[in-house]
Design a protein that fits this description.
Blueprint: H1 10-20, H2 29-32, E1 41-45, E2 48-51, E3 56-59, H3 62-66, H4 75-87, H5 98-109, E4 116-120, H6 123-140, E5 146-150, H7 159-163, H8 168-171, E6 181-184, H9 202-220, E7 225-230, H10 246-256, E8 260-264, E9 288-291, E10 303-307, H11 309-313, H12 337-351, H13 354-375, E11 379-384, E12 389-396, E13 401-402, H14 405-417, E14 420-421, E15 423-424, E16 435-438, H15 446-463
Parallel strand pairs: 3-14, 5-6, 5-7, 7-8, 8-9
Antiparallel strand pairs: 1-2, 2-3, 4-10, 9-10, 11-12, 12-13, 12-16, 15-16
Helix pairs in contact: 4-12, 5-12, 9-10, 13-15, 14-15
The structure holds pyridoxal-5'-phosphate.
Pyridoxal-5'-phosphate binds next to helix 6.
Cofactor: pyridoxal 5'-phosphate
InterPro entries: Aminotrans_3 (IPR005814), Aminotrans_3_PPA_site (IPR049704), PyrdxlP-dep_Trfase (IPR015424), PyrdxlP-dep_Trfase_major (IPR015421), PyrdxlP-dep_Trfase_small (IPR015422)
Keywords: Pyridoxal phosphate
């Protein structure tokens, strides 16, 4: 195996990491145990990664969290960022920038019906902007201040976003949360019994699941509900694509009760589902769309909160109210590296026709997973959209009892030992950390897809 890099003092780096880095989403013990070294990624190319020991990995999750949509090692993005930074790196506040204007124009062309882009740095921040927009509008439009979010959806890590968080593991011990956020039920057909909709299927189920949102609006009082925030396909909460008929009914409900529709495209946006945005698969017309991860594929930090003209117009100058402008700023939202990277990222997706590749590779991934389902009784459900797929593991297909978390993690670890990185959903509902996640870069080849699912096949055989 050729290792395409050299690292000076790998041992020193490993020990520095062990001594000083507080890792995301991790318990300390494995990092402090001197018998186990922290895994440090050093280089990437396409879907391949090399860690500090020289081991090669195939990345089946686009940087762990559905981000590196165009793959690793894209020198042209790095060059564009470098050129931009040398020319003009930053001026914050209300002044504009060349790449900021150019990317906003290009993005809006992909989003008919929307017209304004507010820049920030992370998905959480973009969602916070959206929540603040809704709250500020509520102050002018009566009492419509409540924001609905869905069980199992995740919108970010800040206290505001956790207030809109439907995942218990992420929320536990961080409350009290902000008032005025109200949960609506999820729409996972495989678990429809939990929703009391076990007797329905197909479009009937989808419409009924959407009607559960209507019930919450009616219970809370439509005059108090300002917005509904949903992921197009729930990501960390279990890879939950919407059932047939769900989104059109959600749109109808929002229109009927004058509820702004905020779609969180932080994961699904920029090609992951096979369209530029997940909502576009359903002909939905959102009022607010937030996006982050794939916008610049992790080559720079950038997120966007995009709105319609109608939303923007609510912040028009009003002599009677000097506070009626969006009083929001993120220092680094004015950084030019993000939009410079995003412009190149978008150009790559267009030039390489990656949306078509997503469609083709999605079919292959789903077919492979369905074949695995025939072979392994532990796979209870296979679902997904584009290059964003999940396999829910169960202890018993009949009762659908989730497979024990330790076993799910053993499958992930076995794949890791084979040099294949896959993900598993977090504990959105206690005992529900049981969905394997596959979200390779949009450039994935048929061989890479097969390599991924072959590793899962071997891991399932060994672990179960
Ligand atoms: N929204 C969704 C759907 C996400 O999955 C995430 C992160 O995983 C976020 C928002 C938060 O994004 P960030 O981690 O960039 O703040």
């Amino acid at each position: 195996m050729t290792v395409p890099f050299q690292v000076n003092d790998p041992r020193g780096i490993i020990e520095a990491d062990r001594a000083h880095v507080w890792h995301h989403l991790s318990q300390h013990a494995p990092y402090l145990d001197t018998a186990v070294d922290p895994r440090i990624i050093v280089e990437g190319k396409g879907l391949k990664l090399w860690d500090i020991t020289g081991k090669e990995h195939l990345d089946g999750v686009s940087g762990g969290v559905w981000t590196v949509n165009v793959g690793y090692g894209r020198a042209r993005i790095a060059d564009a960022v470098r050129d931009q930074l040398v020319k003009m790196n930053f001026f914050g506040g209300s002044l504009g920038s060349v790449p900021g204007a150019q990317f906003a124009e290009r993005l809006i062309k992909k989003m008919p019906g929307l017209s304004r882009v507010f820049y920030a740095n992370s998905g959480s921040e973009a969602n916070e902007k959206a929540f603040k927009i809704v709250r500020q509008i509520a102050h002018r439009k009566g009492a419509k201040h409540k924001i609905l979010y869905r069980d199992r959806d995740y919108h970010g890590t800040t206290i505001g976003c956790l207030s809109a968080g439907g995942q218990q593991e992420r929320n536990a011990q961080y409350g009290p949360f902000a008032p005025g956020f109200v949960e609506v039920p999820h729409c996972l057909e495989y678990r429809k019994d939990e929703l009391g909709l076990g007797h329905l299927s197909g479009e009937d189920f989808g419409v009924a699941a959407a009607n559960l949102i209507k019930d919450v609006i009616l219970r809370e009082g439509p005059d108090t509900v300002g917005a509904l925030c949903l992921e197009p396909v729930t990501a960390g909460g279990g890879v939950i694509p919407p059932p047939e008929g769900y989104w059109p009914r959600v749109q109808e409900i929002c229109r009927k009760y004058d509820v702004l529709l905020h779609i969180d495209e932080v994961v699904c946006g920029i090609g992951r589902t096979g369209a530029w945005f997940g909502y576009q698969q359903y002909g939905v017309r959102p009022d607010i769309v937030t996006m982050a991860k794939g916008v610049a594929s992790g080559y720079a930090a950038i997120s966007c909160c995009v709105t319609t003209d109608a939303v923007f117009e609510m912040f028009r100058d009003d002599p009677s109210d000097p506070l009626n402008y969006f009083r929001d700023i993120s220092t680094f939202g004015g950084c030019t590296a993000g939009p410079a990277a995003a412009l190149e990222n978008m150009a790559i997706i267009e030039e390489e026709d990656l949306l078509a590749n997503v469609d083709a590779m999605s079919d292959r991934l789903m077919d492979n997973l369905r074949r695995l389902m025939e072979k392994h009784a532990a796979i209870g459900d296979v679902r997904g959209m584009g290059l964003f797929c999940g396999a829910e593991l169960v202890a018993d297909r009949k009762t659908r009892e989730p497979l024990a978390e330790a076993q799910v993690q053993a499958v992930v670890k076995d794949c890791m030992a084979q040099g294949v990185i896959i993900g598993a959903t977090n504990r959105s509902v206690p005992g529900r950390n049981n969905t394997l996640c596959f979200s390779p870069a949009l450039i994935a080849t048929a061989d890479e897809i097969d390599h991924l699912t072959d590793a899962v096949d071997r891991a399932l055989t060994r672990v179960l």
